[in-house]
Amino acid sequence: MQALWLSLCLAFCVAAILLVVGTPLAYWLSQTRWRGKFLIESVIALPLVLPPTVLGFYLLVVMGTDGPLGKLWTAWFGHTLAFTFAGLIVASVLYSLPFAVQPLVMAFESVDTRLLDAGAILGAGRWRIFRQILLPLSLPGVITAAVLSFAHTLGEFGVVLMVGGNIPGVTRTVSIDIYDHVQSLDYAAANRMAIALVFISFAVLSTIYAVNRRVWSPWPTK
User: Fold this and answer.
1) Where are the domains of the chain?
2) CATH label, 2-101+140-212, candidates 1.10.3720.10, 3.30.420.40, 1.10.10.10, 1.10.10.60
């Protein structure tokens, strides 16, 4: 259960960070008229097509002893970033970034621009329009982004194994724990962990479908 608790903590941290980081990024992507924004969108979407081992390898190089981020982290905290829980958070944020940004962009772009223009005509500033009009109307997308980020992080294997290794209580997540049990032919323990992930994944998917169908949306359905 230690591995499951570690995975839940990691998923919560990553989902929270991605909401803070991904929301302004998604807002900019949804509003900008810059023709080169497809380059930024391509970089964000890279984790969707890259093998996890490729992304994990380069993250390990960057966060290792001789990597730029690893050297900076060592200077600040006295140890490298790789093979630590903090390293897992950094790697997971980058790996799950498209699962947060893309739903947010779609949600922001779906809001009727006439409502935003009306707010501007009435004298509301950009921040007030975002906070009082755009964000509330995009709430289903925000929830979807948070839930997808959480679920994707919870099931990570390749990236967390490359960056964090398999250190009990520090970097051994539930997916790595299941793999270890299977390797040692302890199918009963692997089954217990797998069932727990199945139930959590079902709850996550149910949340997303409930939001998309506006089962508990703050606005009444027609």
Assistant:
1) 2-101+140-212
2) 1.10.3720.10
Asked whether the beta carbons of 91 and 56 are under 8 A apart, the reply is: yes
- φ, ψ (nearest 5 deg) of residue 97: -55, -45
CA–CA separation, 221 vs 192, rounded Å? Answer: 40
CA dihedral sign, ordered 75, 76, 79, 83: negative
pLDDT in tens, 1-38: 788 899 999 999 999 999 999 999 999 999 888 888 99
Residue 144 token pair? 């979807």
